[in-house]
Design a protein that fits this description.
Number of helices of chain A: 0
Shape of chain A: globular
Largest sheet of chain B: 7 strands, mixed
Strand order of the largest sheet of chain A: 1-9-8-3-4
Largest interface: A-B, 24 and 30 residues
Number of helices of chain B: 0
Distance between the termini of chain A: 39 Å
Order of helices and strands of chain A: EEEEEEEEE
Oligomer: heterodimer
Helix content of chain A: under 10%
Shape of chain B: globular
Radius of gyration of chain A: 13 Å
Number of strands of chain B: 11
Distance between the termini of chain B: 37 Å
Radius of gyration of chain B: 14 Å
Helix content of chain B: under 10%
Largest sheet of chain A: 5 strands, mixed
Structural class of chain A: mainly beta
Structural class of chain B: mainly beta
Chain lengths: 111, 117
Amino acid sequence: LAKTTQPISMDSYEGQEVNITCSHNNIATNDYITWYQQFPSQGPRFIIQGYKTKVTNEVASLFIPADRKSSTLSLPRVSLSDTAVYYCLVHSTGGGNKLTFGTGTQLKVEL
Amino acid sequence: EPEVTQTPSHQVTQMGQEVILRCVPISNHLYFYWYRQILGQKVEFLVSFYNNEISEKSEIFDDQFSVERPDGSNFTLKIRSTKLEDSAMYFCASSDGRLAVRTDTQYFGPGTRLTVL
């Protein structure tokens, strides 16, 4: 299973763009990268998933360079309600269906 | 938007008692999961369930735990003889199950907070 490394915490202010980078140096050829968001006392919520280059949805963008050894979740114009823990996961076929969560990045957005 | 629901939202029980946590997965999903999160710790996988049988389980999921799909909509986690260390948030999740594993997005419920006294 590919190990992921991401910052423990980040601080931002409302209206700013936030970029959270995750490294996954031993990602396998067929692995996908998935990001989840979790608010306190709630279940993880799927944000975005990608394989390479750039993926964008109504919530975020995901940038994956050609070597795929890292990925960056970009949250445009964050608000207070984006304060949460963000998890980067590499979903490997060989790992079965289970998701392996790390400690994530605690994003704190202030006024 | 379809969502996973869980009941109860909070369950308080005495040590040694049995509890059943209930989940209603998204209706057309085929894969179901239970995860738990002890306060301040990581989300941990417990078990996955597909085609009416356990597909995979972690070392946490010992004989104290069991899962069942008693009807076409519910998915339950039973914890026998609860211990203090079973206190945690328990999350149910479901996924389509028809997609390639690596793209089969799991959708989580709001969780059940289990408190064992």
